């Protein structure tokens, strides 16, 4: 029996074997989308999207994202897709003044530079002018335009995710001003050591009543709330398991409680290797753990927490950019063989499909799920 994508993902989360292993991505950057669609897109187009908004082309951006997101998912067979708010039509925009081919100056005198490798605008020189922030009018409702369109087109058949809620974990160190981010990160590390209980209390307090917001999102067609607290990076976490339990477990547990009380599931994305904190995920009530790198013991995760937490990932986002398709297929087969039996597994990249991902590698990962991920597994 062939399932819809939504049925397939829910079966995995309920630890049942579906018709096949679901496959999904939280985000796909624009080069792979353009390779699939054969045209330019504003979906995850980074600098191109920002500049289009500066130019007053908001409707062009949103219309393109609506069209391209839905068509991309239908063409590829992905089971999961994100929805998000877009800038409302009545949002005030004051574009920075272009100085050179890759630099701009904003109202406050900050000098922005476009970084080609990441297609982000970063502050390379802080401005000295004191300016009042633009006072935005109340949003006119059009911030839901893309969200509602995707729900209408795919909400009955596909599994929808969105990032929402107060920020948890290590925050305020990644804003795009180069001079300040490392100092703020250092301050966070000291804060974990000096005041872990204060961090926990602040996170829990910020979540009181969040369930009411979750209820609104559920009514708007969402299936799961995605959170992405950075508790670490790459191969380790930023603090010991004991420090994590004091500083961050209370907030993560409260987030799970609020999301569940609001009627949705909790999708936990984390850049850190969480192998020393798998018990924390279960204790907090996480439904889905996503961003699992091949250097993490995914087979052990299945044994240790697979009865409680759905695992999502298994294919290196870095290798999707640099390796040959044969390596991608190997990783996908390994993840399916070790994690898919009994349900509780979604195949995907270890983070997202990045700017330099090779389209042939993305397709190789999809092919393994679509052609060889059928239950009962061989």
Structural account:
The protein has 378 residues and is of the alpha/beta class. It has two domains: 5-25 and 158-372, TIM Barrel; 95-133, no CATH class. Helix content is 42%, strand content 15%. It is built from 15 helices and 13 strands. A seven-stranded parallel β-sheet has the order 1-6-7-10-11-12-13. A four-stranded antiparallel β-sheet has the order 2-3-4-5, with no helix packed on it. α8 crosses α10 and α14 packs parallel to α15 (359-372).
Categorize the overall geometry. globular
| Radius of gyration over C-alpha positions, nearest whole angstrom | 21 Å
Q: Compute the number of helices.
A: 15
Order of helices and strands: HHHHEEEEEHEHHHEEEHHEHEHEHHEH
Largest sheet entry: 7 strands, parallel
Multimeric organization: single chain
Number of strands: 13
Average predicted local confidence, pLDDT: 93
Distance between the termini: 18 Å
Counting helices, strands and paired strands, the structural category is alpha/beta
Unreliable stretches covering 5 or more consecutive residues:
none
CATH architecture annotation of the largest domain: Alpha-Beta Barrel
CATH class of the largest domain: Alpha Beta
Number of domains: 2
What share of the residues lie within helices? 40-55%
What order do the strands of the largest sheet run in, or round the barrel if closed? 1-6-7-10-11-12-13
Strand content: 5-15%
Q: Under CATH, the topology of the largest domain is which? A: TIM Barrel
């Amino acid at each position: 029996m062939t399932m819809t994508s939504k049925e397939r993902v829910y079966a995995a989360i309920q630890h049942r074997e579906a018709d096949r292993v679901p496959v999904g991505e939280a985000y796909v950057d624009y080069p792979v989308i353009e390779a699939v669609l054969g045209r330019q897109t504003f979906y995850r187009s980074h600098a191109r999207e920002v500049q289009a908004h500066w130019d007053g082309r908001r409707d062009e951006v949103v219309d393109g994202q609506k069209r391209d997101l839905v068509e991309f998912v239908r063409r590829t067979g992905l089971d999961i897709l994100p929805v998000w708010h877009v800038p409302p039509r009545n949002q005030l925009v004051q574009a920075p003044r272009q100085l050179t081919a890759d630099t701009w100056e904003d109202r406050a005198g900050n000098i922005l530079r476009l970084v080609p490798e990441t297609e982000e605008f970063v502050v390379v020189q802080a401005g000295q002018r004191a300016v009042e922030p633009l006072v935005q009018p109340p949003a006119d409702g059009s911030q839901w335009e893309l969200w509602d369109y995707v729900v209408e087109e795919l909400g009955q058949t596909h599994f929808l995710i969105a990032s929402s809620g107060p920020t948890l974990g290590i925050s305020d160190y990644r804003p795009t001003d180069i001079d300040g981010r490392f100092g703020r990160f250092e301050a966070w590390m000291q804060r974990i050591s000096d005041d872990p209980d204060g961090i926990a209390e602040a996170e829990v307090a910020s979540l009181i009543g969040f369930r009411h917001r979750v209820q609104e999102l559920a009514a708007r067609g969402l299936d799961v709330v995605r959170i992405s607290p950075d508790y670490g990076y790459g191969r380790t976490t930023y603090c010991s398991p004991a420090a994590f339990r004091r500083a961050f477990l209370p907030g993560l547990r409260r987030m799970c409680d609020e999301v569940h009380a609001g009627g949705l599931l909790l999708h936990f994305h984390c850049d850190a290797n969480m192998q020393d904190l798998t018990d924390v995920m279960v204790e907090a009530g996480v439904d889905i753990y996503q961003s699992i790198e091949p250097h993490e013991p995914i087979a052990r995760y299945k044994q240790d927490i697979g009865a409680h937490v759905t695992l999502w990932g298994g294919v290196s986002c870095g290798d999707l950019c640099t390796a040959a398709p044969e390596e991608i297929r190997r990783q996908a087969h390994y993840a399916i063989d070790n994690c898919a039996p009994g349900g509780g597994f979604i195949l995907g990249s270890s983070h997202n499909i990045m700017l330099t991902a090779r389209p042939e590698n993305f397709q190789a990962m999809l092919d393994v799920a679509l052609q060889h991920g059928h239950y009962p597994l061989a």
